[in-house]
Amino acid sequence: MSLTTTSAKFRSGIKMLVIFVVVYYFITLLFFPQLKNFWRFLNPPKDTSNPVYGLLDPLEFSQKALQTSNPTFVLNTRDGRLPSDLPNKMTVYKFKPSKFSYQAGKDAKEDASTLGFKDNDLTSDLKGNIYSWRNIISGSALSINIDTRELKMSTQLIGKQDKIVSGRLNQDEAIRRARSVLTNIKRLDDPLYSKSTPEVVLGKFSGNAIIPTEVLKEAQLASVDFFRQIKGVPILGPDPKRGLIRVYISSSTETFINNPLVEYTFWDIDTLSNATYPISPIEDVWAAVSKGTGVIANVTSRESNAFQDYKPVKVDRILINDIYLAYYETPKFQKFLQPIYVFEGNYSAAGTTGGEITIYYPAVIGSLIKQNAPNLTETNK
After folding, report:
1. Percent of the chain at pLDDT above 70?
2. pTM for this structure?
3. φ/ψ (deg, to 5) at 304
4. Is residue 94 a contact partner of residue 277, using CB atoms and an 8 Å limit?
5. 208 and 114, same structural domain?
C-alpha cells in the first residue's frame, strides 16, 4: 500500500470520526432532550399529589444584602440546559412542636455544668425561659432556652492565641470532638444527622482574625457545621453553608477554649408523611430567578471566609452551574418542612475577584401557598 493511499484512508477516517462525534452530540444533547420535552408536552404527567395539609404558610427567608442591584443571570450548567430529571411533586413533612418538660430547668443547669460553667456564673433568674451564664475569667457566655433547648455558647479568643497551638487538629479529629461535645449535652440524638457528614473548615490565627487554612501544620481550630437530610434530600437553613448546629473546636485542652463556640437550634421532624405537593416547573422558576426574584442565601467572596461575618459585596453577573431540590428549615419554628429550589454558581463584578453564590426559590406551586411571594428579610449576617 502506497503512502498516498494510506494518507487518503487516514484523512477519510478522521472525517468519519468527526462526523460520528457531531451526529452523536446532536442526537444525545439536542435531539433526545427536545424529543423528551415534546413527549411530555403531548402527555403531561397526571397530578397524583396529595396536599392533605391544605394551604401552606409562606417560607421565611433571610436574603444577603448586596452593594449592587439587578445582576445578569446566565445558565451555565454542564449541558447549558435546565435539569430534566426533577420530580413534579415532593413530600411535605410536619415539624413537631417542642414538648413541655418539668425537667427542662434542671437539664439546662446540667448542660451548663457539662460545658464548664459553675453555679456562681448564672446571671439570670430562674423564672423566665432563658437561662444565662457568664464566666468572668474566660469571658465565656452561655444561654439556653428551656422551652426549645436552643443553646448558644461563645468564648472570646482574642489574647488567647498562644494557648492554641498549631498542627494538632485535622478534619476527622474536629468532627469526633464536635460530636462528643454535642453528645455530652444530649443534642445529637436525631438520626437524620447521622446520615450526613459534617462540613469542616480548618482555621488559623492571623493577628486577631481567624482565616481558613488547608495546611494541617497550620491548623489551630476548626468550624464544624452539622447538616441533615431526609430520604437523600438535603435540609438547608437560611445560609446553605452554615448549619443550625455549629461547633468550633480548637487544639487546646483548656475548658472553654477547647470548644469556644457552640450553636444549637433543632426542630424535630415527623418523618412519617403521606402529604405530597406539586412543585413549580423548573422553567417557570428559572424565569423568575433570572429576573432577580430569587433569594440570595449565600455570597462567599474570595476574600471572605467561614470565620468572618458577611459584608455586602458587588455582584454584576451570576453564572448558575447547578440546580437541585432541597428542604428548608429555619431557627424559627415553622409548621412544615417544605422543598425549595437551590441554584448554585459563581458571581463576578468589576474591580473584584468574584466568588460563589447560592440562590433559593420556593418549590411548591403558588396556588398551594397562603401568599404567593416568599416572606423575605434582608440581612448582613
Report:
1. 85
2. 0.86
3. -95, 175
4. no
5. yes
